[in-house]
Each structure stands twice: as C-alpha cells, then as structure tokens.
Design brief:
The chain is an all-alpha fold. The protein contains 16 helices and no strands.
Amino acid sequence: MFAIGMELNLGQLRHSAHRYLVIGHSSILVPYLGGVLLSFLLYRDYAAPGTSFISFALFIGISMSITAFPVLVRILKDRKLFGSSLGQSATLCAAIGDVTAWCILAFVVAIAGAANIRAASFNLGLVGFYVVVMIAVIRPLLSRLLGGSLYDEFEPGKGVLALVLGVVITSALSTEIIGIHALFGAFLAGIVMPAGGGFRKKLTLRVEHLSSVLLLPLFFAFIGLRTQVGLLNGAQDWLVCLGIIVVATAGKLVGTALISRIMKTPWRESLELGALMNTRGLMELIVLNIGYELGILSLRIFSMLVIMAIATTMMTGPLLDLFRDRSVAARA
C-alpha cells in the first residue's frame, strides 16, 4: 500500500481536467449503487452473523467499486498504451477513483468498527485531522529532512530508508489506533513522500524488491487459504456468484463507458476505458480481507467476491481486444 501511494501524483490529480474527475467518480458511483442494491438480496443469507445491514450494504458497494490502479498501469505498459490518450485517461480516472474509493472505505470501516454514530463521527473527525497533519506538516517536513537525498544520491541510503520505514510504520500504527486500518496509514505515507529528483521512483524500486518477492506471495497465499470455494455447494450459490460478477462488470463497464461517451469520448475509447476500470486485482483482495477481518463478510460471500475479483481482472485483456477488433472491423 505504501508503494501504491507513491504511484499517485496529487499535483496531477489537482490539475486534471473536469472530464477526468467526472468519469473517475462515475466509475465509482455507478457500481457502488449496484452493489448497494444487490446487498438487499444478499444480506439475509450471506452477511456475517451480527452484521448490520448498513455496514454490509456499504461494504458490498465498495467491493464493486474498486479499480486496481497498479494492475491497470501494468496492463497499459505491457500493451504499450501507457503514453497514449487511452492510457492517460485510464491512469487519471483510476487514480481519482482510487483516492475516492479509499476515502469511502475509511468511512465504511469507521462506521463498522464504531459502537454508535457518535463514535463513528469521532473516528472520522480524527481521520480528517490526521490527513491534514500528514499533508500540511509531515509532507513539507520530509522534504526538508530528505532534501539532499532527493537530487544528490543515486539511490536512497540506509539512513534514508530507516527514516522512511519509520514514517510508514508510525503512520500505519496511527490509523490502526484511530480505528480505520493500518493499510490506510501506509497508503497515506506513500502519498506524502517527496517526489523531487525522482525520489519516489528510486524508493519504489527498493520497496518493491521486498514486497514483490516476500510480502505479496505471502498475502496471496493467505487469501487463497481463506477462500473456501467448497462452500459454494449448490446451484443457487453459483448463480449468486455469477450475478455478483455480472453486476460488478456492468457497473464498471457500462457506467464508465456511458459517462465517458457523454463527455465526448469516442465509443471505442469509452468501452476500452470501461474495460480497464473493471480491473480489480490486488486492491480488491485487500478490501475483501478488511471486510472479512471486521466480521462484515461471511466466508461464503468472501469467497464469491474473491472469484469476482479474479474473473473481472482476467477479462480485461480479452475485452480490450474485443472492442479494438470490432472498431477495426467497423472502419473496414
């Protein structure tokens, strides 16, 4: 999550065009509403015991809304589309959607973990205060402390890495104490890291060696152990799982494509953008893991949503090829 936070450029988001803000937020809102409506059918049979409907509905909505920003960027780079118009649109929309989705998730976690509305409001107030402190105080402080390392050093030294690791752990611990989740603190620590002199890129290379070789495989193995496909032991469960995949895909693909087309984007690029925003991957698995640990998702719905995350990510490439091939055939 720290590395993902460093991938986001707040300056770029701040100066992004109005159309990207509209499309990015529509790619969150439409599938979110679809998930909330779907939760009316799922709550009785698939919510964890003792979970309130509000917590369950909000969490199903956010699980439908996630786009895996780092996975999307990797797909664009592998297909040599990162520098294209489509790549720019997808990257900006996914970044905007990611920030919005994680803010909504922080709100949902605060509500789910609080005993009452007053406690939830207090937690959200602490979250807002913490975000302001990180951006207004910690970010410029880090720029001053790491000033020499930003431009002079070829790669971060041991002292710099120790300082950065301390910031990440402290930030993660702070958000855990506040009552949202340690992942939010790590994500926010990545956002406030200085960007001058290619510092983030240098730091990301060092961090990804640890995360991709050790931490990510362990996380995926952990999710695999939790996923109990055998619990889906009847036709009804598999139909529900299929319905979740359809609602998730339709919300992202149709919602993004229609709004993009309304914003004067050509149909082919609108459909391709919708296919890219349907990529969920790692980010979805992180969200689902939070929901299960909070006791909102039962093991059956958790397994269904994991299958949905895998299916929607796998269909990104074929959908891109389909829309591109149809466009070529139409022009011919």
